[in-house]
Amino acid sequence: MATRLQFENSCDVGVFSKLTNAYCLVAIGGSENFYSAFESELADVIPVIKTSIAGTRIIGRLCAGNKKGLLVPHTTTDQELQHLRNSLPDQVVVQRIEEKLSALGNCIACNDHVALTHTDLDRETEEIIADVLGVEVFRQTIAGNILVGSYCAFSNRGGLVHPHTSIEDLDELSTLLQVPLVAGTINRGSDVIAAGMTVNDWTAFCGSDTTATELSVIESVFKLREAQPSAIVDEMRKSLIDSYV
Amino acid sequence: MPRKPTRHHRLLPVQPLTFSPFARSVARVATAYLVKHYLRDAPLKSAGDEFKEKLEKVDRQSESSEDEEFDGVVQADFAFFDPKPDDFHGVKTLLQSYLDNKQWDLSGFVDLILGQTTVGTVVKLEDDEDNAVFSVITALNLGRYKDHKCIAELKEFLLNISHEKDKIGNLRSLLGDKAQNVGLLVSQRVVNLPPELLPHLYDALFDEVSWATEDERKNANQKRPSTTDKDEALIYIKPEEEILHKLSMWSFLFPLQTQQVATHELKNYQLTGIVMAVKAENISSFQQQLHTLINES
């Protein structure tokens, strides 16, 4: 299900949070409403962690991650890194990377299998991404924008990209990512998709300016209507149990 | 009306004038630079192909920017537009800290402003693909919109921040029974907007208000919250507020919680908000004083 919320009067929820299938990071905000909105949706399923990165609240744009790992920029302080390592589940690898493009959230868009990156990213960074996040990395642009992390948001089930993406680009990206993609907007016509929303396989959080139409597009492309966290676990269980005694 | 040909002493290549690059290049430039601008009386914009004709030409001889270093000068053509639904994001960004850090229905408030196409002005660049909004000014009748959630929240905010008992009574009556005759003046702009635009902006607004409410004007009062600095002396971030403060019937100050970027000179000053009530008959005096102030500086 998609939820609409605000961070201190700003509808850019994707700037102040980072949601994956294994954890959720939330910025330390003026009021508790933001944090409790995430808590009420996610509390029993995945940990919701309050943090800052490099002393700032724009954590969603500075870090990139999926269920296997989290990449943070070199500007992250040691205490923040330690706090993240302590709070995240053990199977999530937290890695601080030396990369001059330090807004990793703007440069990298990823799900649990594929990542799209900024064309000017270092070669070593690309290797670290492939290693830590366990994904295949593609250097891409979206509608001519190199900040792929800002102009698209995708999960393992679907993706939303910049509204001016051409049909050919949509097809190409869809083939690379192996998920259905749709070109659309968030927060009442804003084209900076990833700033306005954050999504994982069963839920999404959007800015409160998002119109009903935009919300229904999101719920349909990310397949949120029938998605429950238990559904995903159950699906896995069927394939895990191979014999009853 | 045809646009008068521009006089260039040398060719200036076109600067990219989208919002961020403009603000960035302006910020990069050191103290002395002059922004050249044209205010033309040609039709400038269309929502339904209707242009506003409220701009006058600024005498270019007074601008000495041609003699300055090339990269110290940014050329910008500002134009005044009626508020349109397209301007939602720009206006919302400008009004982000309107009620300090209170969480309220800002989107609803912006919708009210944009819905009022007869009164209100939005300042943008001529032919800007980014549609960046540099300034917004409007007047909202508190009585007409009293049922809107955003107006109710705004009234609650104003009543809660005032700690002076005598002013609260005045404020309460202006917001309550006299609301039909009270206009909320909303004026916000980017910090580096050239002050030469201000007299024209305010003239345009008060002209529109008088056209829209011709018979009610005599009884109307005006009031708005705005920001100033204060420590021993009051430093006004916006020059027109000093004039309004002098002309106001009453006013009170309140502390602001939001972080403002403090310049070096202002770092000893406390950021404070001010609420003022100004009688409508003082408006023409305000306009005159604003013209004098801007044209002399």
- CATH class term of the domain at 76-217 and 236-296 in chain B: Alpha Beta
Distance between the termini of chain B: 30 Å
Shape of chain B: globular
Secondary structure tally, helices of chain B:
8
Q: In the residues of chain A, how many domains can be counted?
A: 1
Structural class of chain B: alpha+beta
Structural class of chain A: alpha/beta
Helical residue percent of chain A? 25-40%
Q: pLDDT under 50 segments of chain B (min length 5)? A: 2-18, 30-69, 217-224, 226-232
Distance between the termini of chain A: 38 Å
Give the C-level CATH assignment of chain A.
Answer: Alpha Beta
Question: For the largest interface in this structure, which chains are involved and how many residues does each contribute?
Answer: A-B, 13 and 9 residues
Largest sheet of chain A: 3 strands, mixed
Overall, the morphology of chain A is globular
Strand content of chain B: 15-25%
Low-confidence stretches of chain A: none
Mean pLDDT of chain A: 91
Strand order of the largest sheet of chain A: 1-15-14
Assembly level: heterodimer
The CATH H-level superfamily of chain A is: L-arginine/glycine Amidinotransferase, Chain A
| CATH fold title of chain A | L-arginine/glycine Amidinotransferase, Chain A
How would you explain this protein's 3D organization?
- The complex is a heterodimer of chains A (245) and B (297).
- Chain A is of the alpha/beta class.
- Chain A has one domain (2-228): 5-stranded Propeller (L-arginine/glycine Amidinotransferase, Chain A).
- In chain A, 32% of the residues lie in helices and 22% in strands.
- In chain A, the strands form five sheets. Chain A has a three-stranded mixed β-sheet, sandwiched between helices. Chain A has a three-stranded mixed β-sheet with strand order 2-3-4, sandwiched between helices. Chain A has a three-stranded mixed β-sheet with strand order 5-6-7, with helices on both faces.
- The radius of gyration of chain A is 17 Å and the shape is globular.
- Chain B is an alpha+beta fold.
- In chain B, 30% of the residues lie in helices and 19% in strands.
- Chain B has eight helices and eight strands.
- In chain B, α6 packs antiparallel against α8 (283-296).
- Residues 2-18, 30-69, 217-224 and 226-232 of chain B have low confidence and may be disordered.
- Classes of the chains: A alpha/beta (245), B alpha+beta (297).
- The interface between A and B is small, with 13 and 9 residues.
